[in-house]
Amino acid sequence: MSxxxxxxxxxxxxxxxxIAFVVSLFGTGAGIAYLPLDTWQRGFLAMSGLFxxxxxxxxxxxxxxxxxxxxxxxxxxEARLEQLIAERNSFKSV
Length: 94
Prior knowledge:
Elements lengths: L10 H24 L4 H49 L7
Helix pairs in contact: 1-2
């Protein structure tokens, strides 16, 4: 029988992810602002960066949701198997 504990992220891992996100977003924004480009080129890079950030959030959510679904399906299958084993137990006294 398995335990139903979910793995938890440490606070250091969460802080590292948040800091990395802020630094990369700031670096991209500063790079776009200081590149010797026309306004429309800066706008294109800014919109591309914004689309990249939002699509990364969406992808992360989809991957998390699929993993949670697989975990739930696995637990349901395990419970069904345990029920079948309990019903077919040949050592059970009648």
